[in-house]
Amino acid sequence: MKNVGIDKVPETTDELYTMLKAFKEKDANGNGNPNDEIPFSGLALSALNPVILPAFTGMTGMIGFDIDDAGKVLYVPAMKEYKDFLLYSHRLYKEGLLDPEFSTQTSQQWQAKVKEGTVGVYSASPTMLDAEKTKSEQLSLSGLTSPTNTKKAVPVPISLYTSKGIITSGCKYPEAAMRLLDMFYATEENAADGFSGNTAFLGYQGEHWDYTDNTKAAYSFIDPIKNFGDINKLISVNMSLPGLLDFGAMPEGNPLMKMKVTQVEQQQKPFYKAAYPVNVRFTTEESDAGNTIENDLLLYVTQKTTKFIVGEEDIEKGFDNYIKELENIGLSKLLKIKEDALVRWNAAIAK
């Protein structure tokens, strides 16, 4: 930022555009080549959903469901402000401010760009970088505002991972299988033989990691474990598992993680806004009727959004038909299912 004369983190979509424009036109990374910068990069729509989309909608449900100030369930991609999000994102893409490969690159290709120091804004944790080689401060974007929204909104990090386990009719001991799944949701205090939701993330306390002192404010790995890469290779592939991640300690001697935690506390946490609860429960009938609709909506919205952004389809000409197709797929029916389930959920947690 300093290399291009930007002295503050953007707070609006206009300020973000100005910064990205500067990244593109000047030697942002200071390597003497003003043409190798990628102002904004990420993996597909996950690059835009947590940052750009809430700036226009004021909602954090991303390509999913949210709840408005009146308590009514809504579908974010069906909001009229979604069109403004599309127009802004298309402008970034058209002007070369958004990585032209954002929708096609692999995770490995994207990470390589970030680690090379050619990306200005990336949607990921700075802990993916090499701590010894990273000299510049990694700043976090706060919630942004826009011409269509004046409230900053940042998605609340998910710590409860549901709908990740299935017990089939062929299971001989469903009660035992359920007890096994329950272990992934145990807190540290209720761990079963040392296993809790945190174990899938860190490994076993005392064997793979431990707190540095009784305050439990920091932890360190135990040899031969050096980092989370070792955890994933040797102990647990922690993505897509069921579980409750209830862990607030900071790794000792990890300046990038310390930087991340500090930035999140200052720039994001004050603007956290919850979306539709991930742990709302549906009846069998609701699930049977709603799952197909929701999957079809996600597929359609993802495809159309990408085409709108990269210019394969005209936003002004195609947005009304896009909204009509959401209804044809069954949006209204799914909204009713989500509303009914939320009413039951709110009543249950109020008891």
Structural commentary:
This protein is mainly alpha-helical and 351 residues long. It is 40% helix and 9% strand. The chain contains eleven helices and eleven strands. β2 (65-67) and β3 (73-75) form a beta hairpin. α3 (81-94) packs parallel to α9 (284-310) and α9 (284-310) runs antiparallel to α10 (315-329). The chain starts with 12 loop residues before the first helix and ends with a helix. The model has no long low-confidence stretch (mean pLDDT 91).
How are the secondary structure elements laid out?
Layout: H1 13-25, E1 38-41, H2 52-57, E2 65-67, E3 73-75, H3 81-94, H4 107-116, E4 119-122, E5 154-155, E6 160-161, H5 174-183, H6 199-202, E7 209-211, E8 218-221, H7 228-234, E9 243-244, E10 250-251, H8 255-268, E11 272-273, H9 284-310, H10 315-329, H11 331-350
Parallel strand pairs: 1-4, 5-11, 8-10
Antiparallel strand pairs: 2-3, 6-9, 7-8
Helical residues, percent: 25-40%
Task: Describe the global form.
Answer: globular
Q: Cα distance, first to last residue?
A: 51 Å
- Name the poorly predicted regions: none
Q: Can you describe this structure in just a few lines?
A:
With 351 residues, the chain is mostly helical.
